[in-house]
Sequence to fold (143 residues):
Amino acid sequence: MNNNMDNKKLSSNEMLETYDAAWYDNQARESYKSAKATLFSISNLVPNLNDNVKSVIDVGCGVGTWLKAWQELYENASICGIDGNDVAEEHFFIPYKYYQKMDLTRDSNELVNEIKTHCNNANITLDTLATLDTMGGGGGQTL
Fold:
């Protein structure tokens, strides 16, 4: 599919217009369905996963759909969501206290330190936070 936005960098205002409440509502519903199905399948493939899931950090969490699915499947798991967008609290699938807005484009060391601070406040264990120091980029990691 070729449109005139393929090679265009969006301005901040254009991004805010693109990622409006309607976009998040539609994306969230579909993401939540996908998360539930995916995590259910994974839990059936990995023996004793329920015993090992203690916390989940989602960097780029949007409105927390995947975190909600994790928490529903693993009720005792602590969660922490990080994203760079301003979204009204009523659009979130998780309690807003488990979300933190951060500038995800800055230096990775600064970002990791801020994630450690925020997620520690969200009852994420220190063992989980220690693994952030060794995480690579390019995808999510369940801790």
Summary: Residues 13-132 form one domain. The first strand starts at residue 55 and ends at 59. The first helix runs from residue 12 to 18. The chain is about 45% helix and 10% strand.
